[in-house]
């Protein structure tokens, strides 16, 4: 039996939410995972927007270095049953860093784990490599295991994927917002993509408005980052075919679509 699983890269702001909602309204999958850490104004995820993403058809929402930027998960963690945050954050952080689901046949299990890298990022409280070992020991029987590795450095992402090769079904990079051209199956069968890309405003700097991004980058001066609320949208991610007969992903299709201007 095969299952079609969609993994969407970072959702940025209102156009990112609209883009994935529109895309999912015309496509059908057995399971959908999306990184939502930028979904609320580009930083964090509110309860309102979490519920919006779930209503759109996203089964599991992952996070990253902006997890702490919204207070809702701290105040009402029980309201976010299908959001996970990086497993290797401080143990005192709300929510879990991994969750196991049962697919539509009622028996096939899929685990989703979120980890954060350490190179050029400073939130991890434990080594993501060893943290993965902890999670991998949770399942007595083999399950499909997809890892959202939220990291800055491409080399760290590749090293982690090699470390997880043969134990994770897929290692899917997020955080840098640009879909990379290195999708591949590693030696022991794990699918790897350095970065799944971004969902949001196409005419932007990684989903943010161009002017403040340019000002801060050019001058080094602080700028209040904002996100576009209208304009052409982009959808980025990857569709994986999971095959129960072989216990791994057997094919992939990159998603890179441009959607018409938002009416709002």
Number of H- or I-type helical stretches: 6
CATH class: Alpha Beta
CATH H-level superfamily title: Metallo-dependent phosphatases
Task: Please state the oligomeric state of the protein chains shown.
Answer: single chain
CATH topology: Purple Acid Phosphatase, chain A, domain 2
- Contiguous low-pLDDT stretches (5 residues minimum) are none
Describe the structure.
This protein is α/β, with parallel strands linked by helices and about 260 residues long. It has a single domain, classed as Metallo-dependent phosphatases (Purple Acid Phosphatase, chain A, domain 2), CATH 3.60.21. About 20% of the residues lie in helices and about 30% in strands. The protein contains six helices and 13 strands. It has helices at about 15-25, 45-55, 70-75, 130-135, 155-165, 210-220; strands at about 1-10, 10, 30-35, 60, 100, 110-115, 145-150, 170-175, 185, 190-195, 200, 235-245, 250-260. The strands form two sheets. Strands 1, 2, 3, 4, 11, 12 and 13 form a seven-stranded mixed beta sheet that branches. Strand 3 (about 30-35), helix 2 (about 45-55) and strand 4 (about 60) form a beta-alpha-beta unit. Helix 1 (about 15-25) runs parallel beside helix 2 (about 45-55). The longest helix has 12 residues, at about 15-25. The relative contact order is 0.18.
